[in-house]
Amino acid sequence: MESKLSWSGAVVAIQPRIRLMRSFDQRDHSYLGYSLRIDGTVDSLSKSYTIGIGKSLQARHGIRAGDLLEGVCSPVGNSDLETVDYYKVSRFQVVKRSETPSNSPPPWVGVPPSLEIYRERGHRRLAAQTYERSCVKCIWGCFMAVEMIIDQWNPSQRKYRRETFCYGPKSCSLYRAGPPRKVPGRKGMSWTEEDWVDEEATRHRSNDD
Ligand code: SF4
Q1: Could you read off the pLDDT of 17-29 as tens digits, one per residue?
Q2: What is the pTM of this model?
Q3: For 131-178, how does the pLDDT look when each residue is reduced to its tens digit (9 = 90+)?
Q4: Any long-range contacts for 22-31 (C-beta under 8 Å, 24+ apart)?
Q5: Does 127 sit in the ligand 1 pocket, CB within 6 Å?
Q6: N or C: which end of the chain has fewer CB within 10 A?
Q7: Measuring from atom 3 of ligand 1, which residue has the nearest CA?
């Protein structure tokens, strides 16, 4: 039987937990739930860590930054497919709710929307440095595990990496795209994801939406 670890702590940030599958110019998203960034303890050790929860847990509790939480969890089995450190949360409890956030965005904090809303909004690439510097606490930021099928005729040939994205308003003053991303393909080929891909994915939103 898998051993479970006790965890507890304060939520520093909550963001969607989404995995991206790439196959050259094709992409497909798996909406796994939410990622919580926690300052607290795991197995009695004080640390900062990330923990993945499902969408039904989030729908029930409306977790947001500042909440104090506890439960048990397991270390992630395959870190190529997850950006969080722990997942499989059970015996979950909200120990104390945070006060209503009083910050003026950006970044946006509070209870994140449903995963369906993220899917509807679509994302733009976000420079990794900007994410680290300004967007770690924003509900519109996302740190994705990316799985790439290098050769569609031989799908077992895969590579893995991490990418950062923004689902937030296109007018956000903190936003920086960073360089276009290249997706490796068969026989040394690569596909460059140019700006038009992001424009297409978010065309249905106005600048401030
Ligand atoms: S760039 Fe995106 S993720 Fe970063 S603060 Fe602005 S809306 Fe949030």
Answers
A1: 999 999 999 999 9
A2: 0.96
A3: 999 999 999 999 999 999 999 889 899 999 999 999 999 999 999 999
A4: 22/146, 22/147, 22/148, 22/149, 22/183, 23/148, 23/149, 23/152, 24/152, 24/183, 24/185, 24/189, 24/191, 25/183, 25/191, 25/193, 29/119, 31/55, 31/115, 31/118, 31/119
A5: no
A6: N
A7: 141
